[in-house]
TrEMBL record:
Gene: argB
Species classification: Bacteria, Pseudomonadati, Myxococcota, Myxococcia, Myxococcales
Aspartate/glutamate/uridylate kinase domain segment(s): 13-259
Involved pathway(s): Amino-acid biosynthesis; L-arginine biosynthesis; N(2)-acetyl-L-ornithine from L-glutamate: step 2/4
Biological process (GO), any one: L-arginine biosynthetic process via ornithine
GO CC terms in record: cytoplasm
Provenance organism: Hyalangium minutum
InterPro entries on file: AceGlu_kinase-like_sf, AcgluKinase_fam, ArgB, Asp/Glu/Uridylate_kinase, Glu/AcGlu_kinase
Annotated protein name in UniProt: Acetylglutamate kinase
């Protein structure tokens, strides 16, 4: 049954990004994100899902005797780390998300951006990273999205399935790149001209005090968000998430929502009323 309010978005795209930390609890993922995606589909909304796999990758890296390296909230990807990301994103997390979505009755096809060139990329050059000092940083085998095959996303939707992508991408020469899942989600949402992009994790939005969920900021304009970064309210891994969000507002996404997985109806409630359960970035 369609949920009141969502029918206004019939035929439009919603893009949902899932943090890797959510995939390990399949019943909870099914009851929250899976149920919301099912409601979106029932309302005639087209849905694409992007997932990360950071915690799983870090755990496997350590099991293999390697040392994860993070700079400014972003993972440095050498050859060994890329192999770990393939195993986690295209393997463990992909299967766990597919299983959770089956519980929720969501017809998901789980793959990566490498498949059929769904998301193409080129190697990212060294650049200055917010929070990592003044010098350019080379993140290794990390890519920048160069193209999104929107026609193929449309065909998958028309076939009645939800494309679910782990955040690996590649090029026509067979190179594979690791990309921050928030980056992939924002680029896909922009190219699909999505009505809404949801960044879903264990974090219930942007917090004025990162240790106090009651300090959630319901809505932010670009100017307000930039001020929060400059003043240090927004910090760490939240910085790239917010920066990507602001950049994509300029490219056509109508609203971007950072929302947690709790309570169980948080994603669905945020879809119906911006700022009710997360932080909504509005063009202002």
């Amino acid at each position: 049954m369609a949920v009141s309010g969502l029918s206004d978005f019939k035929g439009r795209w919603f893009v949902v990004k899932i943090g890797g930390e959510l995939a390990s609890d399949k019943p909870k993922l099914a009851a929250s994100v899976g149920a919301a995606v099912r409601a979106f589909l029932d309302a005639g909304v087209r849905v694409a899902v992007i997932h990360g796999g950071g915690p799983q990758a870090t755990e496997l890296t350590q099991k293999l005797g390697l040392t994860p390296k993070m700079v400014g909230g972003r993972r440095v990807t050498d050859e060994a780390t890329l192999e770990v990301m393939k195993m986690t994103l295209a393997g463990q997390v992909s299967v766990d998300v597919a299983a959770a979505f089956r519980i929720a009755g969501v017809p998901a096809v789980c793959t990566t951006g490498v498949s059929a060139g769904l998301v193409n990329a080129r190697k990212r050059p060294a650049k200055v990273i917010t929070g990592a000092g003044p010098d350019p940083i080379d993140l290794g085998l990390v890519g920048d999205v160069s193209e999104v095959n929107t026609a193929l996303f449309e065909k998958l939707s028309e076939a009645g399935v939800v494309p679910v992508l782990g955040s690996l991408s590649g090029d026509a020469q067979g190179n594979v790149f690791n990309i921050n899942a928030d980056t992939v989600a924002t680029r896909v949402a922009a190219k699909l001209k999505a009505a809404k992009l949801f960044l879903v994790s264990n974090v219930p939005g942007v917090l004025a005090n990162k240790d106090d969920p009651s300090t959630r900021l319901p809505t932010l304009t670009p100017a307000e968000a930039k001020e929060k970064i400059a003043s240090g309210v927004i910090q760490g891994g939240m910085i790239p998430k917010v920066e990507e969000s602001l950049a994509m507002l300029e490219e056509g996404i109508e609203a971007i929502h950072i929302v947690g997985i709790s309570p169980v109806n948080a994603l669905l409630g945020e879809a119906e009323k911006a700022g009710s359960f997360g932080t909504a970035f509005l063009r202002g």
